[in-house]
Structures are given as structure tokens and as C-alpha cells.
Amino acid sequence: MKYPLKYGFTLIEIVVVISIIAMISILVSRVLISMVKTTMSYEAAKEVKQNGNFALDTLVRLIQNAKTVDISPCPDIGATRVATTAAHIINLDDSYVDVMCSEFSRTSRMIVTSPGKSPYFLTTSSVSLWDGKTGQSCFYGPLQFVCTSVGGKPSSVLINFGLSSSTVKQIFSTTVSLRN
Predict the structure, then answer these.
(1) Residue 138 in contact with residue 101, Cβ under 8 Å?
(2) What is the mean pLDDT of residues 150-161?
(3) CA–CA gap between residue 47 and residue 40 (Å, rounded)
(4) Taking the domains of the chain in order of start, what are their residue ranges?
(5) Which residue has the higher pLDDT, 161 or 77?
(6) Residue 80 pLDDT
(7) For residue 105, what are the CA distances in angstroms to 98, 128, 133, 140, 168?
(8) Closest residue by Cα to residue 87 from 145, 141, 148, 163
(9) Residues 6+ apart with CB under 8 A from 1
(10) Residue 113: Cβ-neighbour burial (10 angstroms; 0-12, 13-18, 19+)
């Protein structure tokens, strides 16, 4: 007796193939999700670093080229130094700029103001000033200036601030000597 030839697959073969394809799909999707998360984390870190470096470079340039910096109090070397959250920078032509923390749209941002000019931000809205411990509000002092003077005149300023995004936090700090 001759059996007729059967074409096609059995139910078990189809279930096994579908299971293998499902496992491969899950592995590939996990790898892709991991890659996307890594890329987003890298981009957030890059954004924080670029914002911090830009703000720090701008503040260093403003302070180095200033006639004087009014940060109260500014004790002589060896005296107790106190941090303040704003700086009044007086230029050689006696114009001035103020640098401070300001709250905008639920983020704390570094802002520079000057009379007769539009204020401008030193940080973008994608990052927020962060004090390194408690929070992102200007209330907690995330932007600090510490002055040291020689003979009553400011000679150097310590700038300290932190920036954070959704996943990355970084502290920026430098000491700047006045040239003029």
C-alpha cells in the first residue's frame, strides 16, 4: 500500500519555529533598548558638560577682565570666607553685570543681567543648577561665589556650581584671579 505524500509542517514544528523567532526578537529588542538608553545617557552627560564648561568659561572671562567684583563679604586672606549666591562684576568702563541663579519653568538657571541689555542665560533649559546635595532650587544655593581679598580689594573668586539633567549630575569649580 502506498501512502500519499503529505506536504506542509506539523503543529509542533510551527510552534518550535515561532518560539525560536520570539526568543531572538526579545534578545534583539533588549540589545536595541540598551543601546538607546546608553546613547541617551551619553547625550545627557555631554549636555551637562557643555553647559557647565560654557558657563564656567564665561564667568572666568567676565571676572578676569573685571575692574572689580563685588561679592559681600570679601574678607582678607586667612579670614573666614563666606559663600554668596550672586556676583556683581564691575567692568573697566564702570558698566556692570550681575550673575545669579534664577528660577524659570521649574528649572534653576544661571542668568547674567546688565542694565539696558536683555538678560541671557548661561545654561540651557535642559539642565538645572544643582547644589550637590539637597535640590535644584535657587533657595539651596546651587551657584556660589567665594571671594578672597588682599588689602580690602578682591584678588580671587572661587566659583562653584553643579548642573544636573534627568540622569546626570556634575559639579564645576574653579578659582579665578582678577587681572586688573
Answers:
(1) yes
(2) 79
(3) 10
(4) 37-177
(5) 161
(6) 55
(7) 21, 10, 21, 17, 19
(8) 145
(9) none
(10) middle
User: If you write DSSP's letter for every residue of the chain in order, what string do you get?
Assistant: -PPPP--S--HHHHHHHHHHHHHHHHHHHHHHHHHHHHHHHHHHHHHHHHHHHHHHHHHHHHHHTEEEEE-S--PBTTSPP-EESEEEEEETTS-EEEEEEEEETTEEEEEEEETTEEEEESS-TTSEEE-SSS-SSGGG--EEEEEEEETTEEEEEEEEEEEE-SS-EEEEEEEEE---
β-bridge mates for residue 68, sequence order: 90
For residue range 27-82, list pLDDT tens digits in order.
999 999 999 999 999 999 999 999 999 999 999 999 999 888 887 666 555 565 66
Across the range 87-98, mean pLDDT stands at: 89
Q: In this structure, which amino acid lies at residue 44?
A: A
The alpha carbon dihedral of 31, 36, 40, 42 has a sign of positive
Residue type, 118: S
Q: What are phi and psi of 23, to 5 degrees?
A: -65, -45
Strand partners, 83: 146
CA–CA separation, 121 vs 164, rounded Å? 16
Reported residue count of the chain is: 180
Q: Which residue's C-alpha cell is 541671557?
A: 120
